[in-house]
Amino acid sequence: MCGHGMMLRHLETQDAVRFVRDLSGHLNFESPLPRPTLEKDLTLTPDSICISLVEGWRGEICHSAITGSDGSVVHYKVKDPSFHNWFALALSLRDLEISDFPINNKSYNLSYCGFDL
Questions:
Q1: Burial class of residue 82 (count of CB atoms within 10 Å of its CB; 0-12, 13-18, 19+)
Q2: N or C: fewer beta carbons within 10 Å in the chain?
Q3: Which of 91, 88, 83 is nearest to 58 (CA)?
Q4: How far is CA 79 from CA 4, 44, 50, 96, 117, in A?
Q5: Using alpha carbons only, what angle is made at residue 106 by residues 100 and 112, rounded to the nearest 5 degrees?
Q6: What whole-number distance in Å separates Cα of residue 51 and Cα of residue 73?
Q7: Cα–Cα distance, 103 to 112 (Å, whole number)
Q8: What element of type H or E holds 17?
Q9: pLDDT, average across residues 85-112
Q10: 60-79, pLDDT tens digit by residue?
Q11: CA gap 80, 72 in Å, rounded
């Protein structure tokens, strides 16, 4: 990351910390918070699949959920944009030294653990 990008991240972090401190000064921890009330039934449809696509800063993020016969979530998966590029990285490293990995990885701008979300 270039110096300007790092400085921008640093300033954003400082602003975020200042924002949280300002907000936390107005909280009253002695009185319990009211429990939220649901405006509608949030029961999930049984035996269904739902797929949602959202845009992240690296590209498309896909969420998929599958419900069981009682409407409970039995499987949930998130696919981050880096997923498709890991195979390309493996191909680009063929017949190269392992020491070339960090340079190639930076070239592909990949996420190691799906932290693009």
A1: buried
A2: N
A3: 83
A4: 30, 22, 14, 28, 9
A5: 100
A6: 13
A7: 14
A8: helix 3-24
A9: 71
A10: 889 999 999 999 999 999 88
A11: 24
Question: Which residue's entry shows tokens 């739902």?
Answer: 50
| Matching residue, tokens 């996420």 | 111
At residue 112, the pLDDT reads: 62
| Count of CA atoms in the C-beta half-sphere (13 A) of 59 | 12
Q: What type of residue sits at position 9?
A: R
Return the amino acid letter for 47.
Answer: D
Q: Please answer whether residues 78 and 63 qualify as being in contact, where contact means their C-beta atoms are separated by less than 8 angstroms.
A: yes
Buried b / exposed e over 15-27, threshold 16 CB at 10 Å, is: eeeeeeeeeeeee
Q: Give the amino acid at 58.
A: R
- CA dist., res. 5 & res. 74, Å (int): 41
